[in-house]
Task: inverse folding
């Protein structure tokens, strides 16, 4: 009887801790070294869809790659980072103009954080009368922050006409954003601003330029499976075989 009670208690605790982490609107998890990924959620027609983003902790401050897809989490993200790492966010990159990536530019810019996009993203944001980054960077730019160096790279059109990826050559981390679909993805998702024909070429460029990634951070869903880029290429090829115009 006592054993049973203990098991029951254990199960209650387990489900409780699971429910807590599952329901949290901001879920931070450790990727490797000083790299962390975080998940936020967006209500899309009554269904909560998650989005992945990443931050890097350096001795010069924290670098944020994409913003929460949930406005209510812009400040909690800064607070959580501060509580966990005792550091401020100093830089923020938005990897294309969509809301799940660039939605925090205004908020973070006003906080005094240096915000960055490439020119193509800036032009789309300007056209849509949305908040823009403080700094517009060339399509292929190398940054060094503390002991970390990374390359912000525009591979060509794909999920969006302005999607960029970020490559950490020493750590072999590819931050793909929405350019890379998770292995769980059954299709290419939202294609309103996509160029699927070009996406194929753009993936090949990324594959030949950034070899043997140890981590690939996808825009949504699972990011542990390293075949995500190949999986994206397969989805793109299938799509193009069915619709040769790419639209
Ligand atoms: Zn997008």
Result:
């Amino acid at each position: 009887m006592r054993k049973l009670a203990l098991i029951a208690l254990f199960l209650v605790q387990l489900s409780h801790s699971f429910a807590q982490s599952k329901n949290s609107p901001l879920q931070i998890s450790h990727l490797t070294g000083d790299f962390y990924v975080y998940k936020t959620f967006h209500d899309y027609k009554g269904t909560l869809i998650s989005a992945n983003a990443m931050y890097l902790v350096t001795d010069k401050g924290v670098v944020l790659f994409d913003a929460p897809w949930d406005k209510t989490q812009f400040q909690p993200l800064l607070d959580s980072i501060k509580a966990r790492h005792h550091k401020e966010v100093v830089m923020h990159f938005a990897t294309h103009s969509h809301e799940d990536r660039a939605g925090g530019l205004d908020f973070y810019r006003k906080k005094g954080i240096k915000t960055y996009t490439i020119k193509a993203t800036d032009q789309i944001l300007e056209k849509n009368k949305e908040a823009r980054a403080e700094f517009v960077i060339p399509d292929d730019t190398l940054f060094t922050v503390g002991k970390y160096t990374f390359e912000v790279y525009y591979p060509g059109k794909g999920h969006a006409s302005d999607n960029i990826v970020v490559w950490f050559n020493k750590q072999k981390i590819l931050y793909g954003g929405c350019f890379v679909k998770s292995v769980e993805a059954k299709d290419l998702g939202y294609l309103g601003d996509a160029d699927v024909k070009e996406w194929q070429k753009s993936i090949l460029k990324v594959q030949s330029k950034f070899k043997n990634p140890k981590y690939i951070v996808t825009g949504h869903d699972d990011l542990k499976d390293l075949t995500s880029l190949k999986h994206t290429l397969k989805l793109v090829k299938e799509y193009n075989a069915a619709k040769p115009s790419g639209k």
